[in-house]
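F.,

This is the one I mentioned.
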């Protein structure tokens, strides 16, 4: 569970998770990743670890983002199966026993909890999410409708996922890309236990750009296609201009020239922006920096370990 600013309601949520896990009659561990929370989340995790000996905690040195926190959790999880879920209460713990039973009975590598409805959110968020998944579905060739980060992955799927070392992580997209046998289980997105979502418009837009550029090169081909179309139009317009000049019917085309400059200029700027996004992804990959840095950790039994000199990912 990646955790950010969830200190207030975390004890109640962990109690609900442990209750659901106890129903599975299987040994388990809880791996919580504090993604640089500004509140007392880490202190809450430390206190919880003293009463729950199955709890392990990782504290990142700063806020690296949810996707990087997921990487940290997956790299430190040791189970035969790993359940990834949010700690804000919107992924219902009551669904865990059903996910485990489905995994055991179906033999599937991944059990994916699919949103039946998105729950309460603004109209702009709903429209933005639908538009993003529509574009991603068309460009990538994969189906993401209703997808969530609430998943059960067996050890084979987790190990395969960990072999992908890109710095620009899009967890649900990378999971679909692997192509393992997946079964789905529907769930209702419930309101947050407390607080407000920290996902701003800019953060959503950044994740959308990462998702699109990581799974499709079509925007680059679109630039080439647009260039060919405008080349054809330029040839036709040039032939027309030459003809009018030869027959003596040429007239001043100030408005036409201005419009063409605006259109071509806008196309060039958009094209450079698209190319720039892919260059930014390449630049971040080439630097090879770790996806996250662990500041300190709590192992089983509530034992704190100083990890300031270690980095992972």
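My design for it:
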């Amino acid at each position: 569970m990646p955790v950010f600013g969830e200190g207030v309601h975390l004890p109640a949520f962990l109690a609900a998770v442990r209750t659901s896990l106890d129903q599975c009659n299987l040994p388990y561990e809880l791996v919580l990743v504090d993604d640089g929370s500004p509140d007392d989340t880490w202190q809450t995790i430390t206190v919880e670890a003293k009463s729950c000996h199955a709890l392990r905690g990782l504290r990142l040195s700063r806020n690296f983002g949810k996707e990087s926190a997921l990487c940290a959790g997956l790299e430190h999880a040791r189970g035969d199966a790993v359940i990834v879920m949010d700690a804000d209460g919107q992924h219902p713990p009551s669904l865990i026993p059903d996910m485990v039973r489905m995994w055991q009975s179906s033999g599937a590598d991944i059990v994916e909890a699919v949103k039946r409805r998105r729950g309460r959110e603004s109209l702009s968020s709903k429209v933005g999410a639908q538009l993003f998944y529509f574009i991603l579905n068309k460009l990538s060739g994969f189906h993401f409708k209703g997808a969530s980060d609430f998943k059960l992955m067996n050890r084979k799927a987790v190990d395969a996922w960990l072999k992908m070392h890109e710095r620009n992580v899009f967890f649900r997209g990378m999971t679909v890309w692997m192509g393992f046998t997946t079964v789905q289980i529907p769930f209702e997105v419930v309101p947050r236990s407390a607080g407000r979502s920290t996902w701003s418009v800019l953060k959503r837009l950044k994740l959308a750009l990462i998702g699109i550029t990581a799974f499709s090169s079509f925007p680059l081909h679109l630039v080439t296609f647009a260039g060919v179309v405008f080349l054809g139009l330029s040839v036709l317009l040039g032939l027309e201009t030459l003809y009018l000049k030869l027959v003596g019917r040429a007239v001043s085309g100030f408005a036409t020239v201005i419009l063409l400059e605006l259109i071509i200029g806008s196309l060039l700027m958009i094209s450079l922006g698209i190319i720039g996004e892919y260059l930014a992804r390449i630049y971040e990959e080439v630097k090879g920096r770790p996806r996250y840095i662990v500041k300190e950790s709590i192992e089983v039994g509530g034992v704190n370990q100083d990890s300031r000199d270690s980095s992972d990912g």
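The first helix runs from residue 10 to 22.

Talk soon.
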